[in-house]
Sequence to fold (185 residues):
Amino acid sequence: MTFVETQWAPLVGYGSHSDAIRGVEVRVRKRESDTLVFQYVLRAEMPRIRVPSAQSPVRADELWKHTCFEAFIAVAGAPGYYELNFSPSRRWAVYSFSGYRAGMSPTNVTVPPALDVRSFDDRLELDAAVRVPDLIGQQPGRMLKLALTTVVEDDSGTLSYWALKHAPGKPDFHHPDGFVLELTL
Fold:
């Protein structure tokens, strides 16, 4: 899938999910030469979706255990990848992996992701601005491969998994088959 900044892409739900969820859309925009903005829209009957309460915007672990928007970024031809978690609570996390689900470690960033969250009765919107040099250094012209995903928790506590493309088998956002969006810096 080739990157087009103005195009919204629908995420596909894995298996069954709450009928309160109508869908998730995402797009990625380049802002300035060093920033990517991930924009997510969860369309749902929001009173039936568990959304983490607003908190101070700091790094936190295990955000994916509740409603959370995610991005996975790999540099084409290089080993490893990054996992970015953006919670509607305004908490965030960035991890690096040396290979498929291997060598996970928190990534120190000089500028934390800037999160903007808007909630309505029929949707939840989250924008996350991330400085790319914090992840891959100053490497203009590099091809990035992205997997864009979302975890949604319904009012019963059941999680559903959404992605541009799901790997075979159980939901696995880390699987290389999910890195289908290409973007040149």
